[in-house]
Amino acid sequence: MEVENQTVHEAKKELNKHRRAAEEVESKYSAVRERIDHLYEETEVLKDEQLKLDAECARHEQTLKILETKLKAHEDNVQAMEIELAEREEELKECVGKASEISPERQQVSGSTRTIDTEITRLKRQIKVYESNHGEQEQVVREYAEALALYREKTNQVRDLRGFIDQLDHIMSDRQNRYKIMRRSVSVRCKLYFNNFLIKMNSCGSMVFDHNNETLSISVTPPGREDDGAGDMRSLSGGERSFSTVCFMLSLWEITESPFRCLDEFDVYMDMHNRRISLDLLLELSERQHLRQFIFITPITTSNLPKTSLIKIHQLQDPERGQSATLKIQRITREQSPSTS
């Protein structure tokens, strides 16, 4: 019994030991369990934070990709701008070169870029309107060059013509002076010849040339009327007027170079004395100017003219006035007879 009690007692000790061990294990388990629960809670919090961080990381990665895309676009844009800048610089050099040809000195502009662009746009619009009305710039420039060349050519021609006109003016002025001298000389010669021819009839006269008004005044003083002074041609008799006219024609023939000289019925209203003097004057002039041809028509007989080889007389037959009148009356009668019947 004691042994069994001892065994039971030892078993109880052992049980208490195991019970204490179990309690320790249970307490440890409880602590571990609490620790696990605490860790689980912390893990859940961390999982939530991890999810948040993963979402934020994904968002940042997406933002990074967008930014990388924008960066690539900006880099491409920068590269394109650099290329465009290089082109603009080349274009600027060309424009500066063209502008230097027009204006060597660079003009200082006080306006802004926008103002200059607005002005350029306005000028371009105005140029388009001008080109639509007058043609393209190349055509206008070509036409301007042709017009300028033609203008210079015509200017040279006008200058030459003006010089030629000045020479002509000088020549015409000289010719006018010479003409006036010659006209005065011819007028004086005509007056002298007229007086010389009038002296043949013991008459005297005068001629007044008014070259400005283009008039000629002739005055003749017949013999025996010297005290009356120079008379007008209208105050002369028919014979005196005819003789004065012959003297005037002869004086004109002396100062002209016509190869033919004609007079028709020059001796009408002349008496035989004046007719004889007029014929002598005409024959004398024709002998002196034998290289010219003289034609005189007169209804008076020419039987008293001298017989020379230089004079040829063509005499026409007298018309039969009575027979012609009879024929005319008969013709009228014949024309009227059908109507009377």
TrEMBL record:
Keyword ATP-binding part of the UniProt annotation: yes
PANTHER family (alphabetical): STRUCTURAL MAINTENANCE OF CHROMOSOMES 5,6 SMC5, SMC6 (PTHR19306), STRUCTURAL MAINTENANCE OF CHROMOSOMES PROTEIN 6 ISOFORM X4 (PTHR19306:SF8)
Organism lineage string: Eukaryota, Metazoa, Chordata, Craniata, Vertebrata
Similarity-based family: Belongs to the SMC family. SMC6 subfamily.
Main location: nucleus
Compartments it resides in: Chromosome; Nucleus
Region (Disordered): 1-28
Domain RecF/RecN/SMC N-terminal: 5-298
GO molecular function: ATP binding; damaged DNA binding; single-stranded DNA binding
Signal peptide residues on this chain, from the entry's feature table: none
GO terms (BP aspect): double-strand break repair via homologous recombination
Cellular component aspect of the GO annotation: nucleus; site of double-strand break; Smc5-Smc6 complex
Protein name (record): Structural maintenance of chromosomes 6
Keywords: ATP-binding, Chromosome, Coiled coil, DNA damage, DNA recombination, DNA repair, Nucleotide-binding, Nucleus
